[in-house]
Model the fold of this input.
Amino acid sequence: MICNKNKCTGCFACYNICPKKAIEMYEDEFGYIYPHINHEKCVNCGLCKKVCPVLNNVNSNEPVDTYAMIAKDSYKRKESSSGGAATIFAEKIIELGGVVYGCTYSKGCYIKHIRIDKIEELKKIKGSKYVHSYVLDTFKNVRNDLNNNKKVLYIGTPCQIAGLKNYIGNYNKSDNLYLIDLICHGVPSQKYLKECLSNSKEDDISFRTENGFVFREYDNNKIINETDSRDFLYYRAFFEALIFRNNCYTCQYAKKERCSDITLGDFWGLKSDSKFYKERKKGVSLILINSKKGEDLLRAAKGSMLLEKREYQEASNGNNQLNNPKKKNKKYNKFQKLYIKYGFIKSYKKINRFALLKNKLRKNKLLSKIYNYIKK
Ligand SMILES: Cc1cc2nc3c(=O)[nH]c(=O)nc-3n(C[C@H](O)[C@H](O)[C@H](O)COP(=O)(O)OP(=O)(O)OC[C@H]3O[C@@H](n4cnc5c(N)ncnc54)[C@H](O)[C@@H]3O)c2cc1C
Ligand code: SF4
Ligand code: SF4
Ligand code: SF4
Done:
C-alpha cells in the first residue's frame, strides 16, 4: 500500500501521477476501492507517496463568509439536492468558456467523475449520489485543460479535492482552477448500492426529490421505481453510518478549515429569522466562501441566486460534518462478517429485525396504534 489502508480515501491521486501506469485500483470484498502497485512496472520514483493527501497535508483555510442560498430558477433547485448552488457555479464556468468536472451515474451502477463543457450536459452531473464516485483519469485531464489555458471547475468530496490539489501542485498559482467541495458524511461502496437496486434497467438514479430523501430509479427519463428512505435498505444503512469506507470514520476533512475555494452543503441549522426559513424542506444551500477565488466565483454567479449572509456558527451547529467525522455504527464489523456470507439485503435484515418491524408497523395505522399501546 502507498498509505495505511485504513486511512486511504480512494482519491486516485497516486493512480493519476504514476508515470509508469504501475498503479491499478482494485475493489476489495466489500467493493471499497484501493490502489495496488504492480512491482514489475514500478521504478520506485516515489511520486505516489509524494502526492498522497494522507501522507502530505493540503493547505486549508477557514471560511471568510457564510451564505444561505436558493436558485432564482425554481427548476434548477428542484433538479438539485439542496438549493442548486453547484449547478449555478458550473453553469457560470461553462458560460465563461470553461469546463466542469462532476459526478455522474451510468447504467449498471457505475458512478464516476466526468468532464463537461456544454450547458446541455449539466444535467449529467446534477444531484448528490450518496456513494463513492471514481475520479479515474480526470486529474490528468484537468492538468491538460489548465495547460490549454481553460478555466476549470472541479466539484467533489473534500478528499477528492485534496487529491487533486496535491496532484496539481502549486495550486495557488493555478489561477484558472476553481475547487468546490461538499460537506461530506462518508461514502459507501458502489457494490453495496448495486445490490440494492430493484432491477438492472435503470439508466439514472436520484437520492433526493422535491419530497425529500426519496430514492428513484429512471429508465429513459421515466421513473421505474421510487422508494422512501425508510424503506430503502441502502439509504437506512447510509444514515446509520453502517457502510462507509473505513477511513470516513476518521475523516480529516470534517472540520472548519476547508481545502477548497467554496464549500457546499445543506443549511440544516437555518434559524427562524432567515428569509429562507420556510423553504428548508425544498432545499436551502449552505455556501462557505474559503478564498479570494471563491469570492470571485460567487460574484460572477450571484445574478442567478437569492442569497442571504448568515453566521458560520449557525451553519456549523446544524451540520455535524463541519465539526466531526461520523461515528462508526457499533454493528459495522458484524455487518461485514454477515455480508461475506449473505450479501447486503439479507445481512441488513438480520441485524436490524426490530427496527424493520417497527417500520412496517408504522405504515399500518391499526398495528401502529396497538404497538404504541403495548409500548405504553
Ligand atoms: C457522499 C455525500 C455525502 C454528503 N453529506 C452531506 C452532509 O452530511 N451534510 C451536508 O450538508 N451535505 C452533504 N452532502 C452535500 C449535499 O448532498 C449536496 O450535494 C450539496 O448541498 C450540493 O447541492 P446542490 O443543490 O448545490 O447541487 P447538486 O445539483 O445537488 O449537485 C451536487 C454536486 O455534487 C457532485 N457530486 C454528486 N455526487 C457526488 C459524489 N458521490 N462524489 C463527489 N461529488 C459528487 C456533483 O457532481 C454535483 O456537482 C453530501 C454529498 C455527498 C455526495
Ligand atoms: S513509485 Fe513511481 S513508478 Fe512506482 S508506483 Fe509509485 S509513482 Fe508509480
Ligand atoms: S493517493 Fe489517495 S488513493 Fe492513493 S493511497 Fe493516497 S489516499 Fe489512497
Ligand atoms: S467522509 Fe471524508 S474521507 Fe470519506 S468520502 Fe467524505 S471527505 Fe472523503
